[in-house]
Amino acid sequence: MKKAGILNRHLAGALAELGHGDGVLVCDAGMPIPAVGPRVVDLAFRAGIPSFADVLEGLLAELVIEGATAAHEVREANPAAAALLEECLPGLDLVSHDELKALSAGARLVVRTGEARPYANVLLRCGVFF
Known about the structure:
Layout: H1 9-16, E1 23-27, E2 39-42, H2 52-62, E3 65-71, H3 74-77, H4 79-88, E4 93-95, H5 97-104, E5 109-112, E6 122-126
Parallel strand pairs: 1-5, 2-5, 3-4
Antiparallel strand pairs: 1-6, 3-6
């Protein structure tokens, strides 16, 4: 058994399969998940557990990210999530929530958190470590 990093076997395995340019949608419990296409790892246990911040922090420790996109509505509707995203992801692209949902259809992996605050969603684009 791993003693550090991500312990959830479904998430650890899905992360190991990602390649350059692949999209990872990290979303709150209310974000519509595409019915067909991406692999889904649902971590939601109860409202707020695990939090969006905890899951994002764990993923950023495991992945190389070359870009990220979130909904511009996050700034007004969820200032805490907006501050977290802007701190962790310099150069964050902001689009409408509808556009984020459309872009998420192309994600290779969806990681659903237990977050119950609105617009705690981000689409990460994987980079390479070399």
